[in-house]
């Protein structure tokens, strides 16, 4: 019993240290009001008027306001061959709050800032491979079973949605960041393929679970927070902080 109490106390202190570090760094939030926060692109997405091939891209950016200390918002942008624009699909909580569907589709630029936060490209593929996957992705978007639900923690949320699409298109080799809270909330049951399609995971309502995959490495989910090690990329994964390269 004493050993369990000591381990629990150490775990609590470690997490409090992470919280303190992230808050003191002050790099994951914006002081702007959401209505005036920048949504401008950062210039890393291809120009669809020039790149005529099919393209699929997945981005993530720190969430707005205090939520950005703890997690990211993720989305997927899809351009069929010869299309002159991207369609960006994402789950947005306020839409459910006001009686709408969780899944939103817009023509905002794939690399747009998320209310001031710069996005990071975390997966993409182009050409014939993307063209073959797009019908599957569009069907999965249409059939997303949590289109009438949204919960910041532990899910379903925007990261639950993107993880679901990664399982549909394993060609993406989607390795969502450890700060993608909600990615381990499984659409159904307690067992599923990892979002990258290169392994498997067990999860209890997104609160407790384990994931083992070549792309993601070994991840342990405790109360929706991800701790892990990625042998492939020689990095460790921590909640709030993210990935730290070794």
- Main sheet overview: 7 strands, antiparallel
N-to-C order of helices and strands: HEEEHEEHHEEEEEEE
| Fraction of residues in helix | 10-25%
Major β-sheet strand ordering:
6-7-8-9-10-11-12
Total helical segments? 4
Number of strands: 12
- Summed over residues and divided by their number, the pLDDT gives a mean of 89
Query: Which radius of gyration do the C-alpha atoms yield?
Result: 18 Å
Please provide a written account of the structure.
A hairpin with a 4-residue loop joins β10 and β11 (about 235-240). The relative contact order is 0.13. It is built from four helices and twelve strands; from the N terminus they run αβββαββααβββββββ. About 25% of the residues lie in helices and about 25% in strands. The protein is an alpha+beta fold and about 250 residues long. Strands 6-7-8-9-10-11-12 form a seven-stranded antiparallel β-sheet, with no helix packed on it. α3 (about 125-140) crosses α4. The two termini are about 35 Å apart.
Keywords:
246 residues; seven-stranded antiparallel β-sheet; alpha+beta
Provide a compact summary of the structure:
With 246 residues, this protein is of the alpha+beta class.
SSE layout:
Elements: H1 2-25, E1 55-62, E2 72-79, E3 87-91, H2 93-97, E4 103-106, E5 120-126, H3 127-142, H4 158-168, E6 191-193, E7 199-204, E8 208-213, E9 217-222, E10 225-230, E11 235-238, E12 242-245
Antiparallel strand pairs: 1-2, 1-5, 2-3, 3-4, 6-7, 7-8, 8-9, 9-10, 10-11, 11-12
Helix pairs in contact: 3-4
């Amino acid at each position: 019993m004493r050993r369990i109490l000591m381990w629990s106390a150490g775990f609590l202190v470690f997490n409090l240290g992470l919280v303190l570090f992230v808050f003191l760094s002050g790099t994951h939030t914006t002081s702007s009001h959401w209505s005036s926060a920048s949504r401008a692109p950062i210039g890393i997405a291809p120009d669809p008027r020039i790149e005529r091939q099919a393209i699929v891209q997945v981005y993530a950016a720190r969430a707005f306001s205090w939520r950005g200390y703890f997690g990211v918002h993720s989305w997927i942008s899809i351009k069929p061959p010869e299309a002159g624009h991207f369609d960006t699909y994402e789950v947005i909580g306020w839409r459910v709050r006001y009686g709408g569907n969780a899944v939103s589709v817009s023509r905002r630029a794939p690399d747009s800032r998320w209310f001031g936060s710069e996005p990071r490209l975390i997966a993409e593929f182009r050409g014939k491979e993307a063209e073959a996957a797009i019908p599957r992705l569009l069907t999965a978007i249409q059939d997303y079973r949590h289109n009438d639900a949204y919960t910041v923690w532990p899910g379903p949320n925007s990261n639950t949605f993107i993880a679901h699409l990664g399982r549909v298109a394993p060609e993406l080799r989607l390795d969502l960041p450890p700060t993608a809270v909600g990615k381990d909330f499984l659409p159904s049951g307690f067992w599923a393929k990892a979002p990258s399609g290169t392994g498997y995971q067990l999860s209890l309502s997104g609160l407790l679970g384990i994931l083992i995959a070549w792309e993601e490495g070994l991840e342990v989910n405790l109360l929706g927070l991800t701790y892990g090690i990625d042998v492939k990329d020689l990095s460790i994964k921590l909640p709030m902080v993210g990935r730290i390269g070794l």
